[in-house]
Specification:
The protein is an alpha/beta fold. It contains 38 helices and 25 strands. α19 (507-525) crosses α20 and α26 packs across α28. The longest helix is centred in the C-terminal third of the chain and has 23 residues, at 840-862. The radius of gyration is 34 Å and the shape is globular.
Amino acid sequence: MSAGGSESEFEETTTERLAALGFQHVAGPQITRDLHDVVLKDVLAANLAARYPEEAVDLAAKTVTSPQGVDPVRRNQHFLQMLTRGVEVPYEDKDKVKRVAHIHPIDWENPAKNHFQVVNQLTIRGKNDRRPDIIIFVNGLPLIVFELKSPYDEYKDEVGAYNQLGHYQLDIPQLFEFNAFCVVSDGLTTKHGMPTAGLEWWGEWKSINGIDIVGSGTGSMKTLIEGLFEKERLLSYLRNFILFEGSENPIKKGAKYHQFFVVRAAAANAAEAFAGKRDNRIGVVWHTQGSGKSLEMVFLVGILRRELNNPMIVVQVDAKALDEQIAGTFHQAKWLVGDVTQAESIKDFRTKLANEAGQVIFTTLQKFDLLDGEVVHPKITDRQDVIVIADEAHRSQYGLVDGMAANIRRALPNAKFIGFTGTPIEFGDQNTLAVFGDYIGPIYDIKQAQVDKATVPIYYEARLARLHLTNPQVDGELSDILDDHDITEEEAKVARWAQMEAMAGTQDRVDAIAQDILDHFEKRAETEPFGKGMVVCMSRKNCVALYDAIIKLRPDWANAELSSGGVKIVMTNRPEADPVEWNKAGHVTGTKQREDLGNRFKDAKDPLKIVIVRDMWLTGFDVPVMNTLYVDKPMKGHNLMQAIARVNRVFKDKPGGLIVDYIGIAEYLKEATARYTRGGGTGLPAPNIDTEGMEQFLERLENVREIVPEDVSGASQFTKIQLEDTVNRLVDTLIKTDQVRDEFLLREKNVTAAASLIAHLEEARPYIFETAVYGRIRGMIRKTLPGVRHEEIDSAVKALVDKSVQSEDVVDIFSLAGLEKADISILDDNFLQEFANKEYPNLRLRLLEKLLKDQIAKIAKTNPVVARSFREMLENTLSRIHNQALDSAVIIQAMIQMRKQMDAESEAKKKYGLTDEEVAFYDTLVLVGGKVYDQPFLAKLVRDIVPAIRENLKPDWTRSSREDIQAAIRSAVRRMLIKNGVKRDDFNLIIARVMEHAEAVYAEWPQMPV
């Protein structure tokens, strides 16, 4: 064993880890076979013969090892289908009776009956002979390939291993026809993934037990092998967690560790619910947006259909766009989940539910609505084997008293429920856990997803479009408008929103924002040319106004045709309300048109760069190429978290997504983030909700009964006429006096809130319809209250705003702080706290400190000498802060002066015509020869030295073994010193400093410093 460690040693250690789990280790050279073959046919045949009639074995082995397809990807797809589903093999038994055997190449139910081998250095003949480091064989089938690089060689990493796999696919493509997934590792970083996917889509396996998360770094191979390669787990992954999406160009995907463990846990909970070992609440999966919840549903449904004897599964979403998206994912993964169907209407949905066969039905929540003439949703089926999977469970599942969620439980009284959510934020009585049960597995939150590179970081930039009030009495006049109409609380909210909408939509402001968005977006495109942008406005009217303003500035972007244009509005079709001009301009779209627009927007090469939306595409719409979200609409809570997650998808070298705030959402970001990460991501359970919640509900129910003069506890048995007459009588009685009316409304509100927490309980069912009746009474009473048409309020508010508001320029608040730019992660709670609460000078201080550190780090890549001096200056300044020698304002001025000095020095040197690269060497020469030689002389010397160095550079030139290259560089520098007349006594010092600097600047040659 080498004292310094080697790649071979890493390979041996990896095989030993696998051998410890029961894998038989075989050295490749010991295996006799045709070198073109990648299947160990004798092992496969022996395993099949031990489990199936010998007459069927030969044909079965031939079928499994001859996958069909026009290219390696499709042959791999066909092979994995045969591997997971098995193959039908006709044969004649010993009595000449024709039979058919359903043969599985792997015994999925009995892991111990399979043959697991780890083979290293197996030579495979192809276009070029290749010898992968390790191949995992199961029953003779080469399912996993490991490519390793030495953990002890700083110049070798997992990127090189991945690149090597790319050569294997070209040289020995037959190996990848049978491949399930691959592993690359340099000891520090170990990743698993599909060889056809870019390395950005590969992931590290971060858990051994599915609960404890292991950080990146040393031990990564141990975590992968012990967490995934235990035999039962590995077979589960191979069978349940690999799929192909698409038909024309199939894309192969596999589960990440967080998906694997949570789906297995969810399947186990479902099995317990079916066995009566738990109630009908399977649980909640909280995995942040962009982490692959749709695929988790696919994997789960595949397991449930097989292991629970093909139950009926209802996948319920709360928006048609989500229905289309998730159903599309299932359709593309048909080979794993089987046939799926979408409900076209309420009647169609009920017909499908009444079908006794097991099936997967997709529906929106609205399909649980009542038909004309119905008072209570009818029971559709009382089957015990119905599973409802609710997507974004926090949004739509709290109407358990008198809403769609209540209808679900009436239609499917014995269904089991599981919720998937990315933002389970509790507001008031809306509690996800009470409805669906406890969390399943660890919460996979934003921070963990970013650590795992499952999503990219999100950054925040405030660019407030300030509004200058020319009418100082605007607030009072608005109050007068509202007071004159004697409006309700709800109508006041509408009025306040109308006021904000009108202010946001003033022409001056819209024009200013349009110009700023274009300037900002096009500047970002200089560094991220693939990026796309989305703008969120407060109203459809404001969307159109912004579109018109952008088109004035970029007329070549205008086109009413869906297939053309650089900017588009995405909104639904409302022919009864939308101006005809909107339709002519191409703003009004149907489902198919929005799908076509979505495909254009997702295409990095398509000229459609910016879309403008109000609500569309803010949930469930994945556009990895999108990198900027411009927000001009107040949003809170999970709606805000859903919206900002549109820019967190991984795409090539995309460094992160950016939220640009024009309306002032920083405080809401802080609030939503705090709720999201509350308690370290564990969320808040509902302690004793089954007992305490029920007691509270019954107490509040009794309070309502005391004030209602008739008994409606048996209202679920009333006829429609009886129910309507009863509600009308009670409304008439309860509104006779304001005191009784207001008391009823207060008590009804309290009981409804309590009912939302316990409506999922079996013992609460007898009271739910009664509570809903009180809700109907409340609705009718509200109609009798003094009010005003919203259009009147809108008109009055708009007139007031138009005379009171004019727009100033769009302002970057970081510029106000003396900074040119600052990207601050929205998850940095310290930043948000300072932003909201601290004095303005302190905010500027923190932001400026961050910017200076970033600039110094950047300078260090090309100019370590100057970077070192500036770093010392910054540290001295910060030290004075800590010693309280200066106040914040003085410190800020010192830092600004420091930055100006940095800029000034750079400009002074460039006057000699030096490039950035030459400037770095110039600084070095000034330090060692500035007192002897003047600046023009040193500038000319640099222009000779830098090309001389670059002409002699070679890859890895700084390694000790490349002394010949280093000597050549020193000689070249020496020649330039002689040529320029430098004194001989100065040679050694100058050459030493130049070489030191060259090693820092050109260490990664031929990669250039940036």
